Amino acid sequence: MKSELDIQKADARMQMRAERGLVEPGDAPLKLIENFPLELARVSPVAGYWPVGGEIDGRPLLAALAKAGRQIALPRMQTRAGPAHFYLWQGSDVLSADAFGVPAPPPTSVEVSPRLIFTPLLAFDRSGHRLGQGGGHYDRIISLYRAHGAIAVGLAYVEQEMERVPAGDHDAQLDWIVTPQEAIRCRNGPRG
Questions:
Q1: Which of the residues 26, 107, 109, 182 has an alpha carbon 20 to 30 A from that of 163?
Q2: Has residue 96 got a pLDDT over 90?
Q3: What is the DSSP string of the chain?
Q4: pTM
């Protein structure tokens, strides 16, 4: 039987998928660069993500950070239930589908432990709660790498903001959220 929190999250996911589907990206990915905090731009390695299903495209930001000398990594899920591993990625590297069919570096690439983790999401609130796809993958990733000082940054359209995201104790909060309009510090956690 689903809990009240599970029902709230399912309703919010349905609503936010519909709202995100109406967003016209325009120059939003480039605006992420303009609003990216300088203190975060100094941190490396940076774990990005390959955008799927209407997620904001952080690849221009990753390219700008790579140009500034930061190491860039992408996740690769070897199995649908397993942990994500992060592998170095140069923009020209050939990618292959991981267990979810998402383009990822091959497992023969150099594995790294990211210090800055870009996180896709369906919704966020200003306290750093995020609503993901429901698998808990990024909650586990954030919790694991935060124990080693990593900083979690949600990338989102401003239209993805909710007044309050339904969240439980196991949901990892973001340290920052960067939108095409602003950067929001959510936690006073570790810094680069």
A1: 26
A2: no
A3: ---HHHHHHHHHHHHHHHHHHT---TTHHHHHHHHS-HHHHT--SEE-----TT----HHHHHHHHHTT--EEEEEESSSSS-EEEEE--TTS--EE-TTS-EE--TTSPEE--SEEEE--SEE-TTS-EE-SSS-HHHHHHHHHHTTT-EEEEE--GGGB-SS----TTSPPPSEEE-SS-EEE-------
A4: 0.90
